Give the backbone structure.
Amino acid sequence: MAQKPKVDPHVGRLGYLQALVTEFQETESQDAKQQVLANLANFAYDPSNYQYLRQLQVLDLFLDSLSEENETLVKFAIALR
């Protein structure tokens, strides 16, 4: 299981989301990628996160995940569980 991103508790929501995006991009672990993408999908349900997700280009991350061989990543990218 992936560890929580190492984030200073004072950086706020943007910093936390940035840490998730960075972890997704840098990890080699498929389990970690799945967990991070699921977390980002959960954040996408809250409209107050939209500006941060847009700034961090999370939509592009979801779209790129649609071409992954890992079926779970594809499902998370389209928010099917």
Notes: DSSP finds five helices and no strands in the chain. The chain has a mean pLDDT of 88.
